[in-house]
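Action item from last meeting closed. Structure (49 res):
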């Protein structure tokens, strides 16, 4: 399990490294992370305790 995860993480980082030399790629990544965080927070707010 974890061997597959960390291997994928390493190879994914190597594969995506050329893409993230561009500032626009970082902006897009930050927007996606922001949308994900908003979606999680809204789903947590909408659930009853």
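Sequence:
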């Amino acid at each position: 399990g974890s061997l597959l995860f960390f291997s994928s993480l390493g190879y994914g980082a190597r594969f995506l490294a050329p893409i993230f030399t561009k500032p626009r790629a970082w902006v897009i990544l930050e927007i996606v992370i922001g949308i994900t965080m908003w979606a999680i927070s809204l789903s947590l707010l909408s659930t009853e305790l």
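Note appended to the action item: The chain has a mean pLDDT of 96.
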